[in-house]
Design brief:
Blueprint lengths: L2 H9 L7 E3 L2 E3 L6 E5 L6 E6 L3 H17 L7 H17 L1 H12 L3 H23 L5 E3 L5 E9 L2 E5 L5 H14 L3 E5 L6 H13 L6 E3 L4 H10 L5 E5 L2 H13 L4 E5 L5 E4 L6 H13 L11 E5 L3 H12 L20 H17 L2 E4 L3 E2 L7 E2 L2 E4 L6 H4 L6 E7 L2 H9 L3 E2 L1 E5 L3 H10 L4 E4 L14 E2 L2 E2 L6 H5 L1 E9 L3
Parallel strand pairs: 7-8, 7-10, 8-9, 10-11, 12-13, 12-20, 13-18, 17-18, 20-21
Antiparallel strand pairs: 1-2, 3-4, 5-6, 6-24, 11-23, 14-17, 15-16, 19-22
Bound molecules: NADPH dihydro-nicotinamide-adenine-dinucleotide phosphate.
The site of NADPH dihydro-nicotinamide-adenine-dinucleotide phosphate has 25 residues, from helix 8 and helix 9.
Amino acid sequence: MTREDWHNRAASLQIDGRGLIDGKRVASLSEETFASISPIDGRLLTDVALMGAQDVDLAVASARRTFEAGVWSGRAPAERKAVLRRLADLIRAHRDELALLETLDMGKPISDSTSIDVRATSNCFDWYGEAIDKIYDEVAPTAANTLALVTKEPLGVVAAVVPWNFPMLMAAWKVAPALAMGNSVVLKPAEQSSLTALRLGELALEAGVPPGVFNVVTGLGPEVGRALGLHMDVDGLFFTGSTQVGKYFMEYAAQSNLKKIGLELGGKSPNIILKSYRDTAHAAQTSARSAFFNQGEMCTCPSRLIVERAVHDEVVEVLTKTAAEFVPGDPLDPATTMGALVDHRHTERVLGFVDTAREDGADLRLGGTRERAETGGCYVAPTIFDNVRNEMRVAQQEIFGPMLSVIPVDSVDEAIKVANDSCYGLASAVWTDDLSTAHHVSRGIRAGLVYVNCYDCDDMTVPFGGFKQSGIGRDKSLHALDKYAELKTTWIALGR
Ligand code: NDP
């Protein structure tokens, strides 16, 4: 489709902003709504239901009722698999509609929405559906006169609270394993990006997920997110977003029913380019592409580029050249590689780091400007700060925008020390051809993900999550299924 095709399609889109509870699209009990504004150009997309604690009560009650009735939890894994795989097919069949909603709602380029977000979301439902009828429970090696069964059971009512940077995919990373395991789910999307979550809920119904097993509640975090966190009848709450809000969820759990909490939080990922890597230009190109992908709105954004001084000048030169591939453009143009930031408030916050960096003594090498202001949208040029010291605020705080800090160092061990000098520990990378150095650095870095001579490799088969204040628990892979299950031990006496 061309840019014009996407614009025409956007103009004729009918968007329903009501929530989804007990299998029905519903307004909030208060009948209040909030405006869903596109960061592309400020257009009003629709009015979304502004739900509150009482709406959450209805959604949780519906999830509880269906869970206890066994309409989903009681079905054979092979039956759940068939439904989840049908849902994956439906997501693929609605690729253009879902991609368009995602791009309009949060600003990412349409070519990324179609080729990455929709594809990865359908793959996620396929993968957990496919996995769930291949997992066996255990018989423990106890004495011959007993039988001890160790079985996994669904948690019950699972709530998922997700952010706006990959709205549909982050929802899928929680909802797919939770449903595969047999739970009933209440999903709360970010207020900036409710639209694909609502369509996902509808498609799940069409695929055969029984009404009430997958509910979507829309509204604001401090109302709806908090109500889910404090709810006495939610058994587990799984969150992706900022570290600050992750801490709130731990408090909510402690203040209520000690529900299980899973957190995928922020990052300030170190990316180390050493002189022992044969192709400095390739390392720098990949680093720039990974940092500016998705407008830099990524928890794994390699925002701290730690460079051995011997290759510093070449790295900065290539970074600056590669950044030219990321000119902010119309997100509905398939040729665009950098879209809009999520909203004006976030854009102001991101641009604020230009002054912060200057005050702290960093050199602005590229960008730092608002772009395409005439569109009414939220665009920021790719930005590179050089000669950053790790204690500076641009190196310590998560910016979540297209901003990259270059931190020169003098040795491998200094690089590891700088890499670990952060409250976060999500992703990291090292570029070197020396095998021992690669192992030394990857063992030395306290992070959930270490890339060697690459960045942002991705596959459903590997766990994703962080050390330190980057979170608790892992998304993706078979390991993620454990979060949505309770482990039960059953002792059976065998005769005399
Ligand atoms: P938040 O952590 O504020 O929001 C994520 C989710 O939590 C949203 O659904 C939000 O709801 C909800 N929420 C917000 N406040 C509360 C609360 N008090 N109680 C319960 N739920 C709440 O992230 P933002 O969207 O505001 O982004 C801010 C920063 O978070 C970014 O700059 C970045 O640093 C980080 N972030 C990290 C992400 C990651 O993938 N690790 C993803 C997105 C953001 P609502 O927005 O509807 O109010």
